[in-house]
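Recap from last week: sequence in, structure out.
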Amino acid sequence: MKYGAIAAGDRPTLESALEILKSGGNAFDAAVGAVFTSMTSEFALTSAGGGGSLLAFPNNSEPILFDFFVNALPPNEKSLDFFPVSVDFGSTKQIFNIGKGSIAVPGNIAGLLHVQNRLGVLSLKAVLEPAISIAKTGIIINKTQEFLIKILEPILTFDSCGKSIFKPQGSLVRLGERIIFPEFAEFLIRLSVEGADFFYKNEGADFLVSLANNGGLLTKKHLENYQVIERKPLKSKLFGYTLYTNPAPSIGGTLIAFLLQIINKEFCHEDINHTALTHLMYIAKEAKKEIYTNPSNEHQITKILDAEIVSEYINHFKNNKTFSQNSVEKAKFGSTTHLSILDKKGNAASVTTTNGEGCGYFIPALGFMMNNMLGEEVLNPGGFHLWTKEQRLPTLISPTIVVGDSGPELILGSGGSNRIASAISQVIINTLLHKMDLYSAISSPRIHLEGNILHHEPGIILNDKTLIKKSIEKNTWDKMNLFFGGVNAVSKHAAAGDPRRDGVGGIF
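Predicted structure tokens:
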């Protein structure tokens, strides 16, 4: 490859990464710049007001997990602006909690600028140029974006700023129409000059706090105290490779490692069919209950990878044991996107960012919507506004890199809330064990167990054995759907985006 391999959620994001690589940037410059572009081109999936994680594998160095997910906030005596909205998906309706009281301390800006300063080789101004250009000129709405605008209309058009972007003439923008983000472009220009201080300490912070003052928990002190955390990635030896992923307090990375460890210890590779996967997801679901009761306890999250615990769950699997029924988990849409890059020098970047569904409120002067992470049920398993101190929220995002003897073999990640771990695991299995080419590994039909409902795409045949003594119900989707995640992945010889979300990939 002359420049690198890139897989992204859409074409403008990929092209921004490529432009930066062609300008002499490395994988980390390209990843940071492309994520800022995705805040425009994938506006319904990520935002400067959200959080994320980036797994970096610098050539000839140890990998680093940059944790810049959002911080939870303790409640106070304020009356919160926090309320449910109903979102119609056509076949089903979902309730999301939004409002100023749903805003957690954002980390994307701090994290991305930290990574670029730490590992990048270009100036911040050069890295942000493609994103600034795209925000100014706008994007042409594609099918995925049109679908997301339609289903998220109650959130995207909740305030006047959102209406001006997505309903400029009184009706929703449609396929083929252009939308622009001039205020966000100006924000990026300020950011390129003043750095993260603009958003966390100076005028940008004032804008954010002003928004949150009436019904929110966020203060300027919370913004000033926010820290990017550099963590040692979770490391597992699997199938002759080394897997690196997001460690605690991430839930997703731990579940991926847990599921793959059971496969590694118990299965001949040819035996990993959809029946086996369903049973394994059933076991992983039960393991998740154990680690998710107190997400603030990082040791509790990690302990399910202890050999004794893994062996205990293997016995459950061998004996085909069922557990108590659980109807609490619901299939929730997840607004998240992922980018994977491998540059010509062997540097690898895997980065996932999210804004939840958004809180419903834009910062008019900055041109983007804040997150609703304090209203996300999956991130607040004990209930809403029960955090006793400011701390990292647990997350399901799982940027992942698989390394072989000659360096990174597979760089991947996914959007999709609860489906992130299952989507990534299935692509790893398809690639490393079933020896599929990368596009086939990503586009193959997927299954996902949510609660006691097994969701599956067409092309998968299930029987009573798959449904574990009929304790699991099945839900057959009529076509491939973004519900099952959005895996964007690269290797040394291939790059592929997930067709479920109009993802794109290429080697350049």
